[in-house]
Fold this protein.
Amino acid sequence: MADFEHAAVEYNVEQALRQEGLKPQDYDEICRRLNRQPNRVELGMFGVMWSEHCCYRNSKPLLSSFPTDGPQILVGPGENAGVVDLGEGQHLVFKIESHNHPSAVEPFQGAATGVGGILRDIFTMGARPIALLNALRFGPLDDDNNISLMEGVVSGIAHYGNCVGVPTVGGEVAFDSSYSGNPLVNAMALGLMETDEIVCSGAQGIDYPVLYVGSTTGRDGMGGASFASAELTDTSLDDRPAVQVGDPFLEKGLIEACLEVFKTGDVVAAQDMGAAGLTCSCSEMAAKGGLGIELDLDLVPARELGMSAYEFLLSESQERMLFVVKPGKEEIVMSKFKKWDLHAAVVGRVLEENVVRVIYKGKLEAEIPASALADDTPIDQHELTQKIPSQVSNLWNWNESELPLANIHGLEVNNKIIDWNTLVLSLLDSPTIGSKRWVYEQYDYQVQANTLIKPGDSDAAIVRLRSQLDSHSNGSNRAIAAVVDCPNKWVYLDPERGSEAAVAEAARNLSCVGAKPLAVTDNLNFSSPQSSLGYWQLAMSCKGISNACKLFETPVTGGNVSLYNETKGANGSIQPIQPTPVIGMVGLVDNIENIKGQGWHSPDDNIYLLGVPFENSSALDSRITLSGSNYLEVIHGKVLGRPPTIDIDYELLVQNILRDLISQDLIQSAHDLSDGGLAVALSESSISSGLGADINLPKTTGRIDRLLFAEGGPRILLSVSANQLDSFKSYIENDTCSGDFHHLGIVSDDKKLLIRYDSQPLVYLSVETLTNSFEGAIPSRIC
């Protein structure tokens, strides 16, 4: 004990606090809880566990408002991942997490290990990973640095997912100057339970052995949690050693070994070693179980010589797990891992006392109450401004009347007319709207042979649910649908409304393929909460997500908070990202024979618009807008205005009708109107199918550009075949939403998109021309 006490004063407190990202008041609180000074190892453990990345010290009170319960929810927030009941004995495990800062300084490994980490969250619960999605944000692609970041991130995601054998089936990619130097890399994974019982992380059984399995421990990933909890600076490249290095082939063996051993029932608790490594895994297991854990670091498999206790405890080396197993089963469990050429060793035991005790080279290196590390952690207090910040309210002082005149011939700018063909092609050629083929073609989206629609052909990813009785059987007629969504421009303009819109759009995209929305996992990417604007944006976004999830009955099962997403220049200037709360939502498809894609199906099919009605002489519909639209940004170079209030009741009505139409097989295709509005949605349906469309839009009181490019509201493009038409008309005539079905035209086989306005031609473009613009949105250097 004398050695332990002596070590407590052998460091410069101010320098150590700065290195660990802790505050002076944190140090005072640590001393109070320990009733003594911490030694340097203990201070490092507190540094990672009290970081925003691990304990959500700025966001936890806001997250408490989220709905987390429902009849379908088996496991909510607090475990490695959420679990929902799919019926028929099948349970879906899913979660989303970020790897933003690591990807900014080492894009390939940062993105790759982000995929590896989210997969471990899934199979740690006893589930086999069946799908991956990702939500990515980059700066403009006219900057070589942003291009390099994108190339590295996409390559890292592709490398890890392809090698480990899990299909990457969907996602989204968007661009804005605020993400320059601070890309967002959010990875979502889904898995199906293969064990009879869900494997949880809370330690059980006094004196039960604690096992370390997987890869060896090295110095890679040191301080990763603290690194993720601070803004990026010009010197962040110096933090490159904080980025982990992953091995997807080793992780493949880890998946198989874990699932095999979980089925034996010999593992009573399991925890991935992700952020903060051994420190996080042992303290969280102890805290959740209300017990303690003793670790002997001399027994931990190491890949480097001369590592200190500090390095062992804070390393974030990849592909490692910590188990509590039943006494007497150690050798049986370890043999399963050694069969896969993985390391396995007994490194500790469960304690009755609620402490984390660490021994190294015969000395007591740390002894800390587990609850102090992983449960009773600090909460930073913030005063939430009740007044809308001027930086936001000033953006609302814009309306459509400030736009140049629009008429049947086009847009009049500086006494020149830009025709509607040019405007449509310009939007299709913008990177946020344009084709992401260069991205998804690097992913093996068909591995496991369960992907039912390839990326880019539908509004949500769809993965077949194999029969529980035979994992290689096609007997099941059901599927899981998943999507990631975030209208970041809208969240920037109004965090509450924009976040509600994110939930609504995610649900709408699931409904477009015939899936009933079930639950949500979210990734809240924001700037520093230390600024009043940053905290206000985060608080209002959480309010919007909470409101929408309650009304859609899609509880939040967990997720990730990533703050301090901003870059600090040498001159002290701060560039925060646009607030980006990514919504990952899953839904259930009851009959895969009825799923719908976004492309037209056959010539002469009738095209309808379901949802917000076309405007008439009474008023402009406030549910759709050019505020914050892609048209306003791409064509006019402005991100201004206020997004509309989301009409949740109407959203629910439209989506219920849409799913009903699909379940009765009364339509051939369905496509949500989102980025770019009606003209872009029509173009995308033609590009996906190779077929044209002959559209006639009614004359309205609004602007023509508003009719073509406005965004917002539940609006769905439908196509109906001739043999469905009578039944379809009968359905809509008897439906309460019958007034909101609008016949637009027909699918044509001449491979041209013709859009008329009050019978006069506005847009007339070949599908080939549309496709060339759409596919050319990514610069040629990348392609």
